[in-house]
Amino acid sequence: MPLLTSLLLLIVVARLFGQLFHKFNQPAIVGEMLAGVLLGPSMLDAIQPSPALAGISELAVFLVVLSAGLEMKFKDVVDALRGRGFLIAVLGFVIPLFAGMLVGIVFGLDVMRTVFLGLCISITALPVAVRILQSFKLLDSDIARYSVATAIFNDVAALLALGVILNLPAQRSFQGVAVSILTTSSKLVVLGAFILGFNWILEKMVEKGIHVERIPEKLVQWLGNEALFGILVVFVLVFGSVSELLGFHFVIGAFFGSLLIDRKFFLVSRFHELERTLGSVTGGFLAPVFFAYLGLEFDVEAMQSAGFVLVVLVVSIGSKIYAGWLGGRLLRLPPERALGIGIILNGRGVMELVVASIAYERGFIGQGLFSTLVLMGVVTTLITPLLFRKWVLPRLA
Predict the structure, then answer these.
(1) Considering only 133-142, 149-158, 268-277, which range has the smallest mean pLDDT?
(2) What digits encode the pLDDT tens for the residues 19-56?
(3) In the chain, which end has fewer C-beta atoms inside a 10 angstrom radius, N or C?
(4) How far apart, in whole angstroms, are the C-alpha atoms of residue 371 and residue 367?
(5) Torsion-angle region of residue 267: left (phi > 0), alpha (psi -120 to 50) or beta?
(6) Lowest-confidence pick of 32-41, 151-160, 166-175
(7) How many domains does the chain have?
(8) How buried is residue 170: exposed, middle or buried, by Cβ count under 10 Å (0-12/13-18/19+)?
C-alpha cells in the first residue's frame, strides 16, 4: 500500500477509534493503539510498519513532548528530583530492573538477553506518561511532577546503560569496560551541564531586567505569526540534537529544551496562540499516528512461549506499579496519589521499543524476545490509562 494511503487510513481509523473510546469516557489513546493493532500484521495486515511511518511517528513523539514541556515548568521537574523525590526515581528504575533480570535468570536466558529484558522493563516512556496525564488534565499535579521526573531519570539511566553496552570493546577486559562507563558518564555530565547552564543564563538575564520576550516578538513582527512556531521548534531542536550527538535519545534533550520555554519569554497572548497551534497539530494529527504505530509493531506470530510472555507481562506491570507506590508512600503521599504515580510509570511505549529495536538490530536479542518486548510495550501502554481511570481518578475527585 502506498505511503500516503497507509498514512491516511491510519489517521482516519485511529481518530475514529479514539473518538469512540472518548465517547465511552475512556482515553482516546487506547482506541488509537487498538486501531494500529487492527490494521497491522496481527489482524487485518492492511498496513505494515515501515521506515517512512516510523519517521512520521518520531516527529509525533517530538511534538507530543514539546507540547507537554510548554505546560510544565523546569523548576517543578528539578524540584521533584531533589531530596526525597529522587527516591521515587531510583526505586522506579531499580526494582523493575532487578525484577526483569530475575525473570531472565529463571528462564535461562543468556547474560545479554537478561540485561536487556531488565532494561526494557525498567523504562517508562516519557511521551506516553505525558500524553496520559494530559488526557486527564493532571499535568500540574504532584502525580505529574514525580511521574515525569521519574520517567526522565529512568529513561536516562536505561539509555546510559545502553550506551555502555554498545560501547563495550570486543575484548571485554576490566579496563575496557571501565573506560566505556567513564566515557558514557562524561557525556551525560556534558548534557546536564548544557541544559542547566542555559537555564542559568536565562535566569540571570531576567534578573538583570533584560526583556527576553522582546526577541521572539521582534521576529514575529518581521516574519509574521508563523515565525513563532518556527522559533519554538528551532530552539527545542538544538537541545534534542545535542542530546542525540552525545549518544542519548533525542526526546530527552527536546523535553528539557521545551521546559526552558516559560511564559515569561513570550507575551501572554503569543504564548496562548502558540499552545493552540501546537495542540491542533499534535492532538488532531500526529499524536494519533504515534500511538497507532505502536499497535502496528505488534506481531503475535513471532512471540515466545505463552508462559514466558505471561510472566514478563505480570512482572513488568507489577514491579512498576509497586515501585511507584512504594516511593510515593515513603514520601508520605496519600495512597491514591502514590498508586497514581505507580500506574503512570507503567506505560512504556516508544522508549522501550527504541531500546528493544537497537538490541535486536545489534544481535543482542532474538526475534522471539523482541516480539515479547513489543507486546509488553503495547499492553502496558494500553492498560495504563484504563487502570488510572478505574483505580485512581475517582479517588482524586
Answers:
(1) 268-277
(2) 998 888 777 888 888 899 899 988 899 998 888 888 88
(3) C
(4) 6
(5) beta
(6) 166-175
(7) 1
(8) exposed
Indicate the helix (H) or strand (E) that contains 93: helix 85-106
Q: Which residue has the cell 500484521?
A: 41
> pTM for this one?
0.80
Contact between 10 and 35 (Cβ < 8 Å): yes
- CB contact set of 356 (below 8 Å; sequence gap of 6+): 116, 120, 365, 370, 373, 374, 377
Q: Which of 164, 355, 163 is nearest to 247 (CA)?
A: 163
For every residue of 144-210, DSSP letters joined together read: HHHHHHHHHHHHHHHHHHHHHHHT--SS--HHHHHHHHHHHHHHHHHHHHHHHHHHHHHHHHHHTT-
Return the C-alpha cell found at 254. 527536546
95: closest CA among 327, 251, 292? 327
Average pLDDT of 119-147? 88
Please give the C-alpha separations between residue 380 and each of 133, 296, 351, 365, in angstroms, as whole numbers: 15, 15, 13, 21
Q: Residue 97 pLDDT more than 80?
A: yes
Contact residues for 332 (Cβ-Cβ < 8 A; gap 6+)? none
- Interval 311-361: pLDDT, tens: 999 999 999 999 999 999 999 999 999 999 999 999 886 678 778 888 887
- Domain containing residue 175: 3-396
CATH number (domain holding residue 289) = 1.20.1530.20
